[in-house]
Amino acid sequence: MAVETSTNRDHSGKKNPGKVPKRISKAEREKTKREHLNELFLALSNALELSEQNNGRASLLDEAIHVVKNTLDEIDSLRKENAALLSGSQYVSMEKKELQDENSALEAQIGKQQCALKGRVSGSQVNLNVAPTECELQELESLGDEHHHRLVCMEPAANPLYLVPVCYQELATTELAGKPMPVVRKPHPRYPTAADTWSSDFLKTNQS
């Protein structure tokens, strides 16, 4: 029986030559844990890029906390700046839209003015063999509406009636021809005569 058990153990050992034993001592576990922590702190010191090489774990942790706080503050400020930039971009987009609307309105006004100018130029040189353009038709319709509106708004006013005789000039000429023309003479000066003097006897009687 002893020979069989030994042979069985030899066969089991041959079957799993690289198998790790299940139980590991506590010291080995602590050693591996310390090694892992040392690796982590070394990576942390390399990430922080500290000038001092001989730093303890406490100083490394304090420096890491300080860096994290600064990073969070920077993130907060960047968020606020992003919100301000978004509001500014919205305002700029609104201004751009308003400018586009104003530009389109100005283009429409320029087109109307050009149509009116073409209509006036073509009105001076009318060609009855050519049909009017769309701009001319719009101009004529607008002028017709304005003229109709003015006629409606005008109040009727009674004009004075004058009766002019047709033969007035002929009658005047015939009357002047029938009457003799008056002769204008130069007046002569009038001097007192003997009949115009009072007699002395008459004056004496009146005085007495």
Provide an overview of this structure.
Residues 21-71 form the BHLH domain. Residues 1-32, 189-208 are annotated as: Disordered. It is built from six helices and no strands. Helix 2 (26-48) packs across helix 3 (57-124). It is elongated, with a radius of gyration of 66 Å. Helices cover 69% and strands 0% of the residues. With 208 residues, it is an all-alpha fold.
Topology:
Elements: H1 2-15, H2 26-48, H3 57-124, H4 134-153, H5 168-178, H6 200-207
What is this structure, in a nutshell?
The protein is mainly α and about 210 residues long. Helices cover about 70% and strands about 0% of the residues.
Order of helices and strands: HHHHHH
Major sheet size, sense and barrel closure: none
Helix percent reads 55-70%
Discrete helix count:
6
Q: How far apart lie the N and C ends?
A: 222 Å
Shape: elongated
Strand percentage, roughly?
under 5%
